[in-house]
Amino acid sequence: MQLLSVSSLNEQIKALLETTFIQVQVEGEVSRPTYHGSGHLYFTLKDDSSAIKCVMFRANVAKLKFRIKEGDSIVVNGAITLYKPRGEYQINCFHLEPSGMGALAFAYERLKKQLEAEGLFEQSRKKVIPKSISHVVLITSGTGAALQDMLKVAKHRYNLLKISLIDVQVQGEIAHSQITNALRYADNLEADVIVVGRGGGSVEDLWAFNEEDVARAISSCNTPVVSAVGHEVDWVISDYVADLRAPTPSAAMQMILPDTNELLMQLDSLEQRFNQSMLSILNKNSFALKQQFETYKQYSFENRMKIYAEQLENLEKNYERYFLLFLTRAFENVENIKKNFDATMQRVLQTKQLTVENLVTNFTRVDPKNRDKTGYAQISKSKKIVSLEELDINDEFSLADSNTLISATVKSKNKMQ
User: Fold this and answer.
1) Which fold has domain 6-101?
2) How far apart, in whole angstroms, are the C-alpha atoms of residue 336 and residue 7?
3) In the predicted structure, residue 364 carries a pLDDT above the cut 70
4) How many H helices and E strands in the chain?
5) pLDDT > 90: percent of the chain
6) What is the residue extent of each domain of the chain?
7) pLDDT, tens digit, 9 for 90 and up, residues 304-339
8) Complete DSSP assignment for 224-266
């Protein structure tokens, strides 16, 4: 038997494969397609039990009318080649076309449509992530890089955070059941948020987060749930059901946790605003207190007594001034009254004196005693002096002079010619 080197063996295998499988047509499901910056396309073609790597070079990629994606079921035409440095064989694809939807992609779309129809994706049912978080439950692999990324971000942003880890498998046949049970357990830990997720991988690697029992467990949680699975381009069913979808596990922690530096800056700002507010309040209250004190002084008992004393003193002064003025005016009035009284009494006396003199004169003139003229007498009727013309027939009258009174009756009356 000839002793061969690894390179020689790979060279022989390469020649055998490439001369035997010059033209092949293979159907399978696309996994992990990568459009390289060089323009080449790399992906894996698989079925239920096997997988083979494929490459399509830039010239052939440029002829494609569509872009393949994860889970696409396609038919490729190409040739088998071997990459000698690694001893890996692959299909060099000349042409490819879709053959229908792959099994995983079909299952994904079917479950997505079902849950969406049930309303599990509705924004109205999603819970709000608290702004203040003190306890977070992480459901992920305890040995995965995603956990270390999340812990690193948490320590940097908010090292006062309490973190509870529930270690689960995040890929494989039993992963979805462990994640489901972990969600139910975490919901009873009275945490503020549950973060469930893992790092990147193929569709098969991430499939546990596309299972129905995981989606329903997330939906039934009373605690807000963040789905942080894979990379930004990876969308799984848990992303749609969760209350918040994060593009990566580390991004999840950045999205839900406050930044300590920002909090310190906010505290500084709040302290400054508090000090300014307190200073403003103190100044305002000091001014108000000063006004109250002035008002108190103005209306205090002592001040009011002082005001009353001043008013009383002013009243006394005014009383004295008014009383003196009254007395002065009274004395002036008395003097005027006295002067007017004397003048008035003098005028009255003079008037009365004249009246008396006139009465005396008249009395003297009409007094029968003073009538000494012979043949004349005073005629009276009913004690009233009358003239002869006033007497009628049968009237009784009196005749009187200074010495004699005679009663008589009119017997006749004639006018003198």
Assistant:
1) OB fold (Dihydrolipoamide Acetyltransferase, E2P) (2.40.50)
2) 159
3) no
4) 11, 14
5) 41
6) 6-101, 121-258, 370-409
7) 787 878 888 888 888 788 878 877 877 777 777 777
8) -EEEEES-TT---HHHHHSSEEESSHHHHHHHHSPPHHHHHHH
